[in-house]
Amino acid sequence: MDPGTQSEFNDLCFHWDEVYEIKFDEGAGIWSARYRSAFDQLTAGSCDELRQAIRVDYQERRQAEQRALARLQERSSI
Q1: What does the pLDDT look like over 21-34, one tens digit per residue?
Q2: For the chain, what is the domain count?
């Protein structure tokens, strides 16, 4: 991995590796990330594309969790 790509990879891992498993397939030039408690995988052709995909995915997961929590709280208050 060239130094620029390594730097991008390190930065992405620094911000997201607690929540996502991040990989870079140097041969194919494909960036990927998998949410640690899920099986689906995000893929992108660049670090910036993957970073954006992670942000969108993370936001959608958090919103889904908040909706589920709100439904649970509604049911428990009845």
Answers
A1: 999 999 999 999 99
A2: 1
